[in-house]
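Quiz preparation item.
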């Protein structure tokens, strides 16, 4: 009987201890989830007043407004791609930031290396093509809005020549150039898009110089894939039309801007942070389009005829509904080679695009 009593007391003590431990674990977990999630953003350029980093920062601020004291954020801006990026990402992870957004194409390899050292930190990389258990990639189908913008430029251009100031010849940029040219040539089959490469994402002086060169080559519409308002300001100064990119540039080019392709990251950043807080985050690449709210087309300038605005809006609705895709049907490159015969081009072909469509005047570096 004594042994049975002792065993009973022991079992009771073990059960009580287990209950205390279980309660402590639950309380600790609850305490952890109530702590603010530390979120860091790394930008390749200064935030400035417009452009790539500016739009990502608007997304960060929207996330803060949506989640309040559930998150605490920090920003490191003007970080060069390469060793500097790796150092910054490692420092942020070591400081306890559990979610890090690496917002430039050249941050991918640094993010992968740092992620391997900090498996409990979640990394989100903009525009990348590799993942890891704690590294996800996200991107937008900018080319959808580029196509619409090109169609508008084709209607508004008198010379039939657009100038395109481009950063680096990565697929995302090439997609935008090609989609813009396809849209422009739908409005004007003889239209040309002249491309000048900067080999940098952000250099206002060089962006302005490239824009001036393109104007001197006959372009009366400018667009760009670079990080400052310099192209917009040049268009306004020189009296040519503008299709702005990344941000709405009306404050820099109130007369020149026909429309703008704007990047909208707030909803996505909020969803990602919520998933990390809830413990449901996983590396699942995202490539969102206009229908997903990743990109928007700014209001068309009031100077554009109403029938043209309505034509552009009809095309926008067709893209939103999935009835139209910019890269579909017969597509021939600017060297005369057939690249797509019928139907929509598949995502892999779009994601690895390394050629120019007919109508693009410019060259791509050889691999």
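Solution:
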């Amino acid at each position: 009987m004594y042994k049975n009593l002792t065993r009973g007391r022991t079992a009771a003590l073990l059960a009580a201890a287990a209950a205390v431990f279980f309660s402590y674990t639950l309380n600790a977990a609850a305490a952890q989830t109530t702590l603010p999630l530390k979120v860091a953003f790394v930008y390749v350029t200064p935030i400035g007043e417009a452009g790539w980093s500016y739009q990502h920062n608007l997304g960060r601020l929207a996330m803060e407004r949506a989640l309040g004291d559930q998150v605490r954020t920090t920003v490191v801006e003007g970080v060069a791609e390469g060793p500097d990026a790796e150092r910054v990402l490692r420092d942020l992870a070591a400081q306890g930031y559990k979610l890090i957004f690496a917002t430039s194409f050249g941050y991918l390899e640094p993010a992968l290396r740092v992620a391997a050292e900090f498996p409990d930190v979640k990394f989100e990389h903009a525009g990348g093509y590799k993942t890891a258990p704690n590294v996800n990639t996200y991107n937008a189908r900018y080319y959808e809005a580029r196509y619409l913008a090109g169609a508008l430029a084709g209607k508004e251009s008198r010379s039939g020549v657009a100038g395109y100031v481009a950063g680096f010849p990565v697929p995302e940029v090439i997609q935008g150039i090609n989609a813009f040219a396809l849209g422009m040539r739908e409005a004007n089959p003889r239209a040309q898009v002249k491309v000048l490469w900067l080999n940098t994402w952000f250099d206002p002086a060089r962006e302005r110089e490239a824009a001036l060169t393109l104007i001197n080559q006959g372009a009366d519409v400018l667009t760009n894939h670079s990080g400052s308002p310099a192209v917009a300001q040049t268009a306004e100064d020189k009296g040519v039309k503008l299709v702005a990119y990344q941000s709405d540039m009306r404050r820099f080019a109130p007369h020149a801007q026909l429309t703008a392709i704007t990047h909208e990251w707030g909803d996505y950043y909020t969803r990602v942070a919520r998933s990390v807080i809830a413990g449901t985050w996983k590396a699942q690449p995202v490539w969102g389009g206009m229908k997903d709210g990743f990109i928007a087309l700014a209001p068309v300038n009031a100077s554009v005829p109403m029938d043209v605005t309505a034509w552009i809006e009809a095309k926008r609705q067709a893209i939103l509904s999935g009835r139209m895709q910019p890269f579909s049907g017969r597509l021939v490159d600017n060297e005369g080679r057939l690249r797509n015969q019928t139907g929509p081009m598949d995502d892999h072909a779009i994601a690895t695009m390394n050629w120019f469509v007919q109508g693009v005047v410019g060259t791509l570096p050889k691999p």
